[in-house]
Every structure is written in structure tokens, then in C-alpha cells.
Amino acid sequence: MLLYISSKKFGKDTTFLKDWITKHNNEIALIPNALDSKGEEKLQKNLKEDIELLEEIGFKINIIDLKEYFGKYDKLKEKLSNYNTYCVMGGNVFVLNKAIKLSNFDMFLKEKKNDDNYLYIGYSAGSCVLSKNLKPLAMVDEPISFYGKTNIDYEGVGFIDYTIIPHYKSDYHKSELIDNLVLECQKQKIKFKTIKDGEVIIEKTK
User: Which CATH number goes with the domain that contains 191?
Assistant: First the structure.
């Protein structure tokens, strides 16, 4: 699986995504669950923005709400098997991670990890959740409990062996916290990569 790791939306240059469509197809599963704790107004606003941007690139959007598949992995697998491109939006990384675990979306992704005909697009929280260790991100993103669960899960999908730090040196309302997070990771010798708004990292799953 290829990983399209972005800080803000889909980056300044979307040539890779346009090329992907020509070689595969334009059907994409859009997953908004990182915004579940942000309220309906914020959810709808961001969904509208992302749908417009993805349509400009050339995608045909299909929204998939992971909450509908909590404890129903067979149904989720059947649904997701219709797509080979998945876009996971930003929001709260810990809420998103919990939704991924409760629906077993991570299990589905891991079944496809060795196939380069699948693409995971993520920005902000949607990128961060690919890391194995999410605990450092609690300095920036509130590790809130959600979906009626009390425990916080700090272990991400684990497709990359470093912690993603988005919005680095960018026009972001938590820029000071981002800078402090970088310093703390350096201090604790935690492997990380910073990514600025507009930048994209393309990786293969490990």
C-alpha cells in the first residue's frame, strides 16, 4: 500500500493523485471520523471542503462512517473492498484512532499493506494515525475518550516507524505547541518527521 502523507488537505501539488486516477480509477472512500468530537457544523464544513477539493482532482467520493461498522468487520470489509483508494481526514488523532480500532479498519489496511495497487491518503490526524507511537501527539491534540469508551489508545496503525508532526512552521493556531513537541521528541530521542502545510510525503507500508 502506498501512503500519501499530508499536513494540510492534499498538498500544493496533486500531480501524484491525478496520475493515480489514470492508472487505477477515481472511486475513493472518504473517512471523516477524526471530526466526530468536533460537532456537526465543523464536520459538515470540512466535508464540503474536502469533497470539492477531491472532485477537482478527479475523484468520485463515497463517504464511509466507521461508526456504522463498530463490531461489524465483515460488513466493513465488504464495503471497503469496492475501493482501492482511501482518504482519512484530519481532526482529533485519538478519536480517529479509536474509531479505526473499534471498526477494525486497521485490520483491513494491514491485509492490503503489501499491495501497491492500494492508496491511503491522510492529512493531519489522518496522517498521524499511521505512526506506531501516538503518545507524543498528546502535547498538541487532546487525548479525549470518545464513543463511550474510557481508555485512550496510544498505539496507531503502525505503518510508519516514526511519529508524524504536521503543521510544522506553518500558519497554524497551535504552532507553539508543535515547536514544543519537536523539542520534546528530540529530547526523548523519539523518531519523528515534521511536515509543513502544503508538503506531502509518499511512503510504502513497512
Answer: 3.40.50.880
Domain that holds residue 44: 2-204
**What pTM was computed for the model?**
0.96
In tens, the pLDDT along 81-135 reads 999 999 999 999 999 999 999 999 999 999 999 999 999 999 999 999 999 999 9
pLDDT for res 112: 95
| 3-class secondary structure, 62 | strand
Give the β-pairing of 200-204 and 2-6. antiparallel
Query: Number of folded domains in the chain?
Result: 1
- Distance CA(149)–CA(33), nearest Å, equals 15
How is residue 51 written as a grid cell? 469533497
CA separation (Å) from 54 to 24, 51, 151, 190?
15, 5, 34, 34
Cell representation of residue 67: 461508526
CA–CA separation, 157 and 122 (whole Å):
12
As a whole number of Å, the end-to-end CA separation of the chain is 9
